[in-house]
Amino acid sequence: MSDDFGANYSMTGGLSKIRALTVGLLAVAAGVAVSLCCLAADPPAPSPATGFDPLTAEQIDTLTQAFQLIKHDYAGRVDDNALMYGAIKGMVSSLDPHSAFLEPAAYARLREQLNGGFAGVGLQVGQQDGALRVFAPVPNSPAAKAGIRAGDLVTRIDETPAQGLTLADAVKRMRGEPGTQVRLIVYRPAEDRSMTFVLTRAFIHQNNVTMERPVPGFGYVRIGGFNEETVPDLANRLKALAQTDPELKGLVLDLRANGGGVLQDAVGVASAFLPQNTEIVSVQDRQPKNSHVYRVAYADYRRPAYTADPLADLPAIFKTVPMVVLTNAQSVSVTEVLAAALQDTHRAVVMGSATFGKGTIQATGPLPGGAGLMLTVARYYTPSGRSLQNVGVQPDLPVDDHPPDQSDDLPAVREIDLDHHLSSQAGRPDTALEQTHAAAVINRLQSIEAQRAQSSRLGPTARRSNQPAEYGKPGDFMLSQALNWLQHKPLTLSKAKQE
């Protein structure tokens, strides 16, 4: 999933002088995570010692001749920078779905997002079923104030149809300078109608943590992304919850439709609920010296803006209170790191559907001229040693967003569906896993087709249009099941299905 400012990025220290780790997702239900370190500012020179050879004279000749032929013979004039950027994009895009070349404007947006804000209309969007779907409007944003809802489909951005645009292109068109306007045409499936919204872009300070008390004695915390304010904000809200409800009986941590963010911040969130020094995630880089095991330790979630440990005086009850973690296919990247850590350590029960399945880490860094590069450099592993690549976090308690007899959503796009996705284990093809997944998707589609055919035979009154759940609000079926589990009440589990 991605916000209208693009995927979430960030950086961590420790891999090299300026190397930034990003565990992320571009393009599909996009989201990203970074650790505080980056690609080296001065890349090592090609040599046998560095493990790679310089370009040969023939390779340089091929590139130069192609450049010159395009400049001389192409039907129109071509900008030199555009040609160079196109060459780098093609080279990087052939690697895997998450490596990317970022032109100066895109890299500047990445840096802006690292500072906790963005300029746009305030929509968290993703590509689903071939459409640009709204997962949630950012509270108090222009989009939220205008009445755009979760589940709406953006069909046109100004004069451009959204169908056929990449997620990055759609995001780029919705962004812009504060005070400028953008016109969105939105289709609302639940009401079978289209609406036009003229939105004035604004600088939006994203609040990633929200909290509710759905019933006395039980708390609900939703985290929509991870940046440097997430851990302090979470700590403050948990302290307030402990004061309001000192005899807290249970807590629901909602990670649905969370596209990721900064790795350290996810480590910090896990540290709020786990004992000191507990392993959270192991990052295994191609260069062993850059590998790192993240634990419950201030050094592993500290951010430059912190003047003190935000979790230092967190009430001890949050290390032991019964917990349920909610996930779905749009739970991506470091969101999966957090869910897996709480699951592997038996600290919480995971409820919902399988997460996206991205088990790799990217490093980001600047290039000359203001551009940037995001490159897959490592894999990460859960405390029990699992790779989540192409698999995701499987829920302990499978529950749909809607009751099973109303759930007919199409299979979600996952990491394993992306072109050039890496295998779950380096050097080992995932042929059997891919075949099993493809068969499961076909079975799911056939089941939906049969279900909808039956509804059609029964007439219009039998047809349903599922309105996406408003997370944390009345009518949130998955949340109601989480509260049932915490209160030892009967559960309604989903029909067995794998996508």
Plain-language structure description:
- InterPro entries: ClpP/crotonase-like_dom_sf, CtpA/B_N, PDZ, PDZ_6, PDZ_sf, Peptidase_S41A, Tail-specific_protease.
- Belongs to the peptidase S41A family.
- Keywords: Hydrolase, Protease, Serine protease.
- It comes from Paraburkholderia kururiensis.
- With 499 residues, the chain is α+β, with helices and mostly antiparallel strands.
- Among the domains are: 88 residues, Roll (Pdz3 Domain); 257 residues, 2-enoyl-CoA Hydratase, Chain A, domain 1 (Alpha-Beta Complex), CATH 3.90.226.
- 26% of the residues lie in helices and 23% in strands.
- The strands form four sheets. Strands 2, 3, 4, 16, 17, 18, 21 and 22 form an eight-stranded mixed beta sheet that branches. Strands 1, 6, 7, 8, 9, 10 and 11 form a seven-stranded antiparallel beta sheet that branches. Strands 13-14-15-19-20-23 form a six-stranded mixed beta sheet, with helices on both faces.
- The N terminus is likely disordered.
